[in-house]
Amino acid sequence: MFIILGVLGGLSLFLYGVTRLSISLKKLAGKRMKRILERFTSNIVMAVLLGILVTVALDSSSVTIILVIALVNAQVMALQRALAVILGANIGTTVSSQIIAFQVEVYASLLLVVGFVIYFAGNHKKTTKYLGLVLFAFGLIFFGLGMMSHAVEPLKEHHGFTSWIRYLESPPKGVLVGALITAIIQSSSATMGIVITMASQKLISLGIGITVMLGAEVGTCADTLLASIGRSREAIKAGIFHFGFNVVCVLIGLLFTDTIANVAATISPSNVARQIANAHMIFNIGGVLLFVAFIPKIDWLLDKVVPQANKKVIMAEN
């Protein structure tokens, strides 16, 4: 019970911190980000780079993709550029895994104190207050990770847990668990935070971390699919692309799990937590490089897959 409460408490702080961070960053730079997305997508390469930068700035690929779906729905952004931004968002989200793998929970208290002071020293200056909230939110995220890390440490000696971990050594089962966890908590960053934290305590192997990470890539599509419901045909195509791209990449990733693991281990030979973060980045960069050149053809395929509005209804209205 102590372990469960510790993990849930840490996860609650982590998720609340992610939510506050996303809200504060949108308040601080949301309108500016929207204008940047509208202006700086002149070509596919620029759109991918922009997707990376915006996702890093907003600390959420889901927020970036939902914003893109809204812009496509409003006919502000062309679909091919939107697809490229979505690809970039998939790379941008790996930055949080890299940050988590640095075991930054040691800085949690400092960020909480500095963020608190800046927030209350800001008086009526909204920009200063939101900056304080951003730092405070980062502190909550790191503090939550620290709580989870300390809570799971006794699991090293828990027979039931080690038996369950062996269950995850089957790649399809690991993917399923990763997808379910991410769909439930609505955050692939949180799933990766849990995985990297457990790896830092030597509770899971690199192979298990990779398969759960692959599942998280599928589970993260749930909120963007929901965001596309009831939108225009182009917006629905963007949501379907995100889901289809992630599923295809995961299926390919399952075939090359050993290769990804070997490359990640070569980069960081002795740190499993860092290896999982590296694998996350390698996988997403590889997926983008594999498909970015085919965006025009993917656009054509989506045009065939997603039906036009009911022609009979249109004719009847005319």
From TrEMBL:
Subcellular location: Cell membrane
Annotated membrane topology: Multi-pass membrane protein
Top-level taxonomic group: Bacteria
Main location: membrane
Keyword Cell division among UniProt keywords: no
InterPro entries noted in UniProt: Na/Pi_transpt
Transmembrane segments: 44-70, 82-100, 106-123, 130-152, 172-196, 203-229, 235-256, 276-295
Pfam families referenced in this protein's UniProt entry, alphabetically: Na_Pi_cotrans
Alphabetically ordered keywords of this record: Cell membrane, Membrane, Transmembrane, Transmembrane helix
Record flagged with keyword Transmembrane helix: yes
PANTHER family attached to this UniProt entry: SODIUM-DEPENDENT PHOSPHATE TRANSPORT PROTEIN 2B, SOLUTE CARRIER FAMILY 34 SODIUM PHOSPHATE , MEMBER 2-RELATED
Protein name according to UniProt: Na/Pi symporter
Annotated organism of origin: Chryseosolibacter indicus
